[in-house]
């Protein structure tokens, strides 16, 4: 194996020749000087001093066993015990064959007999010893995580495979451990405090899992992997690891994803992918700290990956269809169609109709939601324009905006372009923004909403009642309608049938001068109760499920007749 030596002094590695016989030193120097920078020592004490002085550049030591002041056999263990010196390979020089075995036991890498063999043999043994030592140093440097001392991920997987090889019948678990919201620790208390927590966790792991039946690594940042014999006490382990960080300025809680009784037919990385899936399942759950993987999780994960992979094709082929659910104004004697909400459905060529509950959150997490939303906005605008041109009738259509889209500086420009391209007005398209979006980074969101309203767009606060905002906050927000969360309605009409909160919200809306929209209305009882309470607009299966554009036209023609 040829190696570049450009990073050594004059392109040469340093070698120490320690021998009390001058002729031996000169002979070795003549053999080696073309390829190596040769240092000299004539006794053991001098050799030890030269080694310490050149510990960072010395590549090999040629050590005579029989020297004054400190012989080679006594110097070997001294080098072995020093962490800064033990990595330097030593080749002993001896005519005493009986000492060869003893020198190897004390840490020598090889030996060269006296009288010396041919120069090429000496060079080959030196080259081989240096190469093996440097390989070990590279392995040592990359094998362990510098901060925690645990295995790095690449070596972890290799040692896990070796463990299986020698323990083929052992029941093994793959564990993925994450610290909940670890980035907050770094942001609040600094990297040093975060590093201290990681080191404590690593120490706790090494004490909890015996080295005889496990392999442990720090994979990335705050993620640890453990491959261990099966056990059932993982909840107590999370408690123990939280305790070791108990004196920290913030609480530290770990979550563990467990793939128990690993299928060893799977490659080892796939086993830990499954553990990670289980860990991610409880990412935002603050009461559960251990999650067990099962095949249903895997099916769900594979299905999600398939949907993400096929999203670009689905968008290009217009597999997404926009449905419309009517909203009725119920303030008069007879319900009157007032607007509609655009809702998406995915008609997959092989999977059939996929409901939005299966893909909306997934696309939000993967950053695809903006592409889908603009597709829906444009589809809704195109349909509104078609109804206007062909039927001479239209109603405003509400479209949803995700929280992430509210940070887009080009959002207002996008809607202006859409209305202009399709020949509709801002009054034709309502914008639904969730209550939670107003609460987080509210100043920036409020400014964006004000900008949209200034351009003539009607703003509905969606999912109101899902528990985010205070009533005081509502009075300060720029909105044109309050839309009650579906679960808010269902809870009000459960067995207790307590609608007092709805009544309070309607009173607040009246004070603000905005209508209240109730979604998820399914029964006549709910309809009549909401009408009596003063609710303005109703949406739900009581009137109609979401329907395709052509079916929705009957509501338009009924309104126009």
Describe this structure in words.
By secondary structure, the chain is of the alpha/beta class. The chain folds into 3 domains: 134 residues, Response regulator (Rossmann fold), CATH 3.40.50; 141 residues, Alpha-Beta Plaits; 257 residues, Alpha-Beta Barrel (TIM Barrel). The chain is 46% helix and 21% strand.
Q: Summarize this, please?
A:
The protein is of the alpha/beta class.
Number of strands: 20
What is the total domain count?
3
pLDDT averaged residue by residue = 86
In spatial order, strands of the major sheet run 11-12-14-15-16-17-18-19
Please give the CATH architecture of the largest domain.
Alpha-Beta Barrel
Topology:
Layout: E1 13-18, H1 22-32, E2 36-41, H2 44-53, E3 58-64, H3 72-81, E4 90-94, H4 97-105, E5 110-113, H5 119-143, H6 153-166, E6 172-179, H7 182-189, H8 191-208, E7 214-220, E8 223-229, H9 234-243, E9 254-259, H10 268-281, E10 290-292, H11 295-316, E11 320-329, E12 336-348, E13 352-354, H12 360-365, H13 369-391, E14 397-401, H14 411-422, E15 429-434, H15 435-439, H16 442-454, E16 458-464, H17 471-474, E17 481-484, H18 486-492, H19 500-512, E18 516-519, H20 524-533, E19 537-539, E20 547-548, H21 549-560
Parallel strand pairs: 1-2, 1-3, 3-4, 4-5, 9-10, 12-14, 14-15, 15-16, 16-17, 17-18, 18-19
Antiparallel strand pairs: 6-8, 6-9, 7-8, 11-12, 11-19, 11-20, 12-13
Helix pairs in contact: 7-8, 8-9, 13-14
């Amino acid at each position: 194996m040829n190696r570049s030596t450009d990073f050594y002094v004059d392109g040469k590695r340093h070698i120490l020749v320690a021998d009390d016989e001058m002729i031996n030193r000169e002979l070795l120097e003549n053999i080696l000087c073309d390829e190596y920078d040769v240092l000299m020592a004539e006794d053991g004490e001098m050799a030890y001093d030269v080694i310490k002085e050149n510990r960072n550049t010395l590549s090999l030591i040629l050590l005579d066993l029989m020297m004054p002041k400190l012989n080679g056999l006594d110097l070997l263990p001294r080098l072995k015990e020093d962490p800064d010196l033990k990595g330097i390979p030593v080749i002993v020089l001896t005519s005493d064959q009986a000492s060869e075995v003893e020198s190897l036991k004390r840490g020598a890498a090889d030996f060269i007999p006296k009288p010396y063999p041919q120069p090429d043999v000496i060079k080959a043994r030196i080259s081989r010893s240096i190469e093996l030592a440097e390989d070990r140093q590279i392995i040592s440097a990359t094998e362990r995580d510098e901060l925690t001392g645990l295995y790095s991920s690449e070596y972890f997987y290799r040692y896990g495979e070796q463990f299986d090889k020698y323990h083929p019948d052992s029941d093994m678990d793959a564990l993925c451990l994450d610290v909940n919201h670890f980035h907050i620790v770094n942001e609040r208390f600094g990297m040093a405090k975060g590093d201290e927590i990681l080191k404590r966790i690593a120490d706790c792991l090494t004490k909890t899992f015996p080295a005889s039946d496990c392999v442990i690594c720090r994979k990335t940042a705050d993620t640890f992997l453990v491959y261990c014999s099966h056990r059932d006490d993982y909840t107590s382990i999370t408690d123990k690891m939280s305790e070791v960080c108990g004196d920290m300025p913030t609480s530290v809680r770990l979550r563990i994803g467990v793939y128990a009784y690993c299928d060893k037919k799977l490659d080892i990385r796939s086993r830990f992918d499954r553990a990670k899936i289980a860990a991610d399942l409880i990412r935002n759950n603050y009461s559960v700290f251990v999650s067990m993987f099962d095949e249903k999780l895997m099916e769900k994960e594979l299905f999600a990956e398939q949907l993400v992979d096929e999203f670009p094709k689905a968008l290009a082929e217009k597999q997404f269809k926009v449905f419309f659910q009517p909203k009725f104004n119920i303030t008069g004697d007879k319900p009157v169609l007032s607007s509609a909400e655009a809702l998406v459905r995915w008609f997959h060529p092989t999977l059939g109709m996929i409901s939005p509950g299966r893909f909306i959150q997934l696309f939000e997490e993967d950053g695809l939601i903006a592409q889908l939303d603009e597709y829906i906005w444009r589809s809704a605008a195109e349909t509104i324009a078609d109804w206007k041109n062909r039927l001479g009738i239209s109603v405003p259509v509400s479209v949803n905006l995700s929280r992430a889209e509210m940070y887009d500086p080009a959002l207002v420009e996008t809607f202006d372009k859409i209305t202009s391209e399709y020949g509709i007005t801002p009054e034709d398209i309502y914008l639904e923004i969730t209550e939670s979006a107003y609460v987080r980074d509210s100043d920036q969101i409020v400014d964006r909403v004000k900008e949209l309203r200034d351009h003539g767009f009607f703003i509905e606060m969606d999912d109101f009642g899902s528990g985010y905002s205070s009533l005081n906050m509502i009075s300060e927000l720029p909105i044109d309608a309050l839309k009650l969360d579906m679960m808010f309605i269902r809870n009000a009409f459960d067995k207790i049938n307590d609608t007092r909160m709805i009544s309070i919200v309607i009173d607040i809306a009246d004070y603000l001068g905005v209508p209240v929209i109730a979604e998820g209305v399914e029964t006549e009882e709910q309809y009549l109760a909401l009408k009596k309470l003063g609710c303005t607009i109703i949406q739900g299966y009581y009137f109609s499920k979401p329907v395709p554009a052509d079916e929705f036209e009957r509501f338009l023609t009924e309104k126009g007749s």
